[in-house]
Amino acid sequence: MSSPTNLFANVPKRSSRAPAAPFLPMSRAEMDKLGWDSCDVILVTGDAYIDHPSFGMALIGRLLEAQGYRVGIISQPDWHSAEPFRALGKPNLYFGITAGNMDSMVNRYTADKKIRSEDAYTANGEPDKRPDRALTVYAQRAREAYPDVPVVIGSIEASLRRIAHFDYWSDKVRRSVLPDSKADILLFGNAERALVALTHRLAAGENIKDIRDLRGTAFMTPLGWLPDEDWTVQASAGVDVPGRVDPIPNPYQEIPQDRSCATGTDAPEVKPIKIMSREERLAAAKEKSRKTVCRLPAYDVVKDDPVMYAHASRVLHLESNPGNARALVQAHGERDVWINPPPLPLAMDEMDNVYDLPYARAPHPSYGNARIPAWEMIRFSINIMRGCFGGCTFCSITEHEGRIIQSRSEPSILREIEHIRDKTKGFTGTISDLGGPTANMYRLACKDKKIEESCRRLSCVFPTICSNLGTDHSKLISLYRKARAIPGVKKILISSGLRYDLAVRSPEYVKELVTHHVGGLLKIAPEHTEEGTLSKMMKPGIGAYDAFKELFDKYSKEAGKKQYLIPYFIAAHPGCTDEDMLNLALWLKKNNFQLDQVQTFTPTPMAMATTMYHTRKNPLHKVSEDSEVVETAKNGKVRKLHKAFLRYYDPENWPILRDALKRMGRTDLIGNGERHLVPPPRGAEEAQPKVEGRRRVPQPVKGRGDRAVVTTERAPASTPFMAPPSKVKPSILSTIKSKPRAGRK
């Protein structure tokens, strides 16, 4: 597979290229001011254009600008005709199509499939500024506007829909987005490498139909196409069950020959067996793998066969490490969708250069004083890394950004803090976040590069933290200390979600965090309390949360601060039963938590939990007809019940909870005492019992806008009601145990 040695290897000298535009043009008038008669590349996006590296269209646009290309942006066009796609004229090279920072269906709909009242990526939060499945619609309109212009699709919507996938909103398995969009090529993951190489090759006159060797790309081919005759095809069929295994011959064993039948010219040719060193064997295997494509079950098979769908999902996730992943191919009717191996991660200097580009760090002037919620969220925050090796099954960060952490250098991050201080309007001295997909994976990596390249684990931290994973937080501690020492910076908060099972490996980090970087509230995501559900999430047990809370409380007390954890939980996750949700509700009450706004599991394309939801099979293990069955809350009433357990204190939920408790044989939890979960019915006089020592905690600030790749229903942040530990009265709930399920130990 082809990949440039360095992302900026072919950047023209600054003196030989045009100066950076104040903003990438969104109109002909802006192009005229820049002296442009045409654009080389036109990016179409479903988001408002904000010239900031947390927004994909700005990052890609500025990157291509640095490569010497003229880039225009069409933001949130009216998709009902092709005319808005002609606003900037015909691009010289291609249309780059993106749905935006979020999958358009996740952006537009709640977990209950209701239209959201606000779009965080639109001026004034106005809804309905993008269509359903925006990527496909935009690509079709761009093709209609200029039929002979290549169409390149990318973004998280392209990444997560690159193969046949279950679509929650239509409740069926849909084709890859490639044949539906009629795009020439799809770029998935963090696509800077593929995009830069593709653009240079198109500018050199190469036909886009001939560019088939770039990592991180997918495209349509004739059925059975192979790059050359050296390639081999390995079928993934067999439902992930090993076939017959031939014994390995012993090269030292003497094999007797039947000389009565094998004499003279009829004797078999005896060939010496070459004994290869381990390094030679590994090199030969790697070369063979590099030219092997794994054929997934066809779309026509997986759309009707849940077992084969789960099998295909498992194989795709196993082939996700850029160090050893093979190409994948999946038949869609009379053509194949060919998917090259994932892109190679960016090196630190490449990451620095991407984030050091001349962003205006503001919304395009055409929006005036309009409020753009996503911009307000990330305005004073900084992305210090990419990727996540957690592999949580309900989240798509790993599928999109990969498991290998890509970090920026300290100087680059500190420079951005100074840029915010000096150039961002409204800065008062507080940096709202130094983070990324997680707050504390900065510069964490496998201890051995060779092990990393050969690893096929789905997570580095589940079921336990890998012994080869470095968990030293000292570099992050150093960054925190240098960042808060910058003149003009009064406070640096950490708002990204924290991986607490890693944090407890470094008590010094927890102390640094709690003492200096928590503004009273810290987000943390146990997601659940029950082992069965957590195992389907690939999340650590609740004991890891308890260990972190102990350190958090200890260091908060030492710092003389009253600070609280904000826990997130998911309702109706695959593998979660009514009994599990009851146990979680009892845990919440025992710990005096009342969650105001809660999240319900949303099955998003390509996530492993979505596979569990659709197929009732567990792709974390080998899949077959008789393999583990994952019970899943699909019925609307069951999903509503699971959500109600998280809000057990809400009078509106008491009727459904009473009915459930009666059905489960737990009427002992209906009453007015502290040991009860809900009160008995009292007609109009029904009221929530008062509990001393419980108080509201202020609404936390919503997370970074560029965290929208997280695909659980977490749009509104949770608001807990908590009692300070010193005031929590002993509760009889500590002696209450839910009845175990049959067969559960």
From TrEMBL:
Bound cofactor: record note: Binds 1 [4Fe-4S] cluster. The cluster is coordinated with 3 cysteines and an exchangeable S-adenosyl-L-methionine.
Residue span(s) of domain Radical SAM core: 374-650
Region (Disordered): 672-745
Required co-factors: [4Fe-4S] cluster
One GO MF term: 4 iron, 4 sulfur cluster binding
InterPro entries on file: Elp3/MiaA/NifB-like_rSAM (IPR006638), Methylthiotransferase_CS (IPR020612), rSAM (IPR007197), rSAM_horseshoe (IPR023404), rSAM_sf (IPR058240), UPF0313 (IPR022946), UPF0313_C (IPR024560), UPF0313_N (IPR013704)
Basic and acidic residues bias (residue ranges): 673-695
Keywords from the named record: 4Fe-4S, Iron, Iron-sulfur, Metal-binding, S-adenosyl-L-methionine
Binding site for [4Fe-4S] cluster: C388, C392, C395
Annotated family: Belongs to the UPF0313 family.
Name this protein carries in UniProt: YgiQ family radical SAM protein
Organism listed in the record: Massilia horti
